[in-house]
Specification:
By secondary structure, this protein is an alpha/beta fold. Helix content is about 25%, strand content about 30%. It has two domains: about 60 residues, no CATH class; about 180 residues, no CATH class.
């Protein structure tokens, strides 16, 4: 191949070494949705800075989720936080149950949540106050398909200015009410059943939909069956220990989704440091 001079040199579209001198502007220009993927951020920064033909690439330190954003991340009282669904969140006893539900206690749930928040670079503060007059489910024990709402105080934790709550089987039981039917002749009919069920996920959906600046997690519920039952399900296990481990993994995944949602909304940020 013969090397010949060119008449005109096209300017490349990628940043040259002069524009790269303004590295702070470059590092803050990524779309918000990219903040959910730290690896993409790292690779993009390396490509952008290495494409200028320099012999060396700067060292990049990536910090994610450590601090609330000082720009777009202002927590407001009308913030709507979606429910992050992982796990069926239901359990029952009696004739309706084919496997025994393994419920999560509130203390165990807090320990798991605190650990998962720490892994995400956030701090969960325990029992920080009461959300007064919150909208909570009203559940009729004799009519599980009938759900309404009521107002009650809700004990909450707190993280980056957002109230945090966990819906347990105990909470659902507390929000239940007994109801009596009146027959045509005026006599009272009392409904008695050996079956009992709790739906933590549905209760969490009611809380998330009707309360602002509140993030709701719920007991995912795993199940245990002793012996060879022939039941095939990813949430059914042969020991209580395995069922608890599965529920812990599902609850941690709820926190991961919450952390990624915070990043996508700009409420926490990934910061790139160049050295």
């Amino acid at each position: 191949m013969k090397i010949e001079p060119i008449d005109y040199l096209c300017k490349p579209n990628y940043p040259d070494k002069y524009s790269n001198e303004s590295r702070q502007a470059l590092s803050s220009s990524f779309p918000k949705r990219w903040l959910k993927t730290p690896l993409v951020l790292s690779l993009s920064a390396i490509i952008a800075l290495g494409a200028n033909g320099c012999n060396s690439v700067p060292t990049i330190t990536l910090e994610c989720g450590c601090e609330p954003s000082l720009t777009a991340g202002i927590i407001t009282n009308d913030l709507i936080v979606p429910l992050f669904i992982h796990g069926e969140g239901t359990g029952g006893i009696g004739c309706i149950s084919i496997a025994a539900p393994v419920f999560m206690s509130e203390e165990d749930a807090y320990a798991i949540l605190a650990s998962a928040f720490e892994d995400a670079g956030l701090t969960l503060f325990k029992n920080t106050g009461i959300l007064e007059d919150a909208t909570v489910p009203l559940i009729y024990d004799s009519y599980p398909e009938r759900w309404e709402t009521q107002h009650a105080d809700l004990y909450v934790h707190e993280a980056i200015g957002i109230s945090v709550t966990f819906v347990s089987q105990r909470d659902v039981s507390r929000w239940e009410r007994s109801i009596q039917d009146i027959d045509a002749d005026g006599s009272i009919i009392i409904n008695v059943s050996s079956a009992k069920s709790w739906d933590m996920k549905r209760a969490a959906e009611v809380l998330a939909k009707n309360n602002t600046s509140l993030v709701v997690f719920y007991d995912p519920v795993s199940y245990v069956v002793y012996g060879d039952s022939g039941i095939q399900s990813k949430e059914i296990f042969s020991s209580v220990q395995d069922a608890r481990k599965a529920s812990e993994a599902l609850l941690r995944q709820q926190v991961i989704d919450f952390s990624e949602w915070l990043q996508s909304e700009g409420l926490i940020q990934c910061t790139i440091h160049f050295t």
